[in-house]
Write a structure and sequence with these properties.
Blueprint: E1 3-4, E2 12-13, E3 16-21, H1 25-35, E4 39-43, E5 47-51, E6 56-61, E7 74-78, H2 82-91, E8 101-103, E9 108-114, E10 120-126
Parallel strand pairs: 3-6, 7-10
Antiparallel strand pairs: 1-2, 4-5, 5-6, 8-9, 9-10
């Protein structure tokens, strides 16, 4: 589903990329490719881009002098089953901040961890019927 631009000019957002910066591109790219299992779709030399969802991408770049920006940023992977993701990635060596837990007034079920650069990552289920779930799916938890 594409979003209309706020001004209604008929401009549609078709895809999105979140960019993370690093001083060790090979290490960070290997984490997202080999540990998380994302498909690398583009190698630009100083940047590599991974597909997260049909229209969502994550780019990692080595640009000297660029602030790393790990403070105040969370990259959330929305998944169907947080417990399954937690067990799967724990077995692959990811150290989580703790087990999955409920927050957000019981509308969020999630667990947190960090990538090798220190960026905060989260596996999350929304449990809110107002969320635009993929077709044929709704909240898993009551």
């Amino acid at each position: 589903m594409a979003a209309d631009a706020a001004d209604g000019a008929g401009i549609f957002i078709e895809q999105n990329v979140v960019w993370l910066y690093t001083e060790n591109l090979d290490r960070l790219a290997a984490f997202y490719r080999d540990v998380i299992g994302l498909k690398q779709v583009l190698d630009q030399g100083i940047c590599r881009v991974f597909q997260v969802s049909p229209t969502g991408f994550l780019g990692v770049c080595n640009k000297p002098g660029r602030p790393l920006g790990t403070k105040g940023m969370v990259f959330t992977f929305l998944v169907e089953d947080v417990e399954k993701a937690y067990e799967h990635y724990k077995a692959r060596g990811i150290e989580f901040d703790g087990p999955p837990h409920v927050s957000g007034g019981k509308t969020v079920y999630s667990c947190f961890f960090r990538d090798p650069e220190g960026y905060l990552l989260e596996f999350q289920e929304f449990n809110d019927p107002r969320w635009p779930y993929p077709e044929g799916r709704g909240p898993r938890r009551g």
